[in-house]
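Interim report, section 4.2 (structural modelling).
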Amino acid sequence: MAQQSFQTRYGSPPMSDDDAACRACCGQMRAHWDERPHARLMVVASTPVVEAFGGGVETRYLCLECGHTLMHSTGRFGQGWH
Ligand SMILES: [Zn+2]
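Predicted structure of the assembly:
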């Protein structure tokens, strides 16, 4: 007999510690905007930025290593890795 259990799966809550970034991410944040994303970064979203905010494209990456989110912009303002 299959008994239904009411186990609620919360998964693992995302750790939002700034310290949680792995070594590769720390290096990426200091990298030149022209640098390629490190091997464990996965593109989550790519958003064009309006001209008033410098234009370019803002790409959000998720690190598969540490779960850290990194932003990369190609616009005139805030160009680089964040
Ligand atoms: Zn990382």
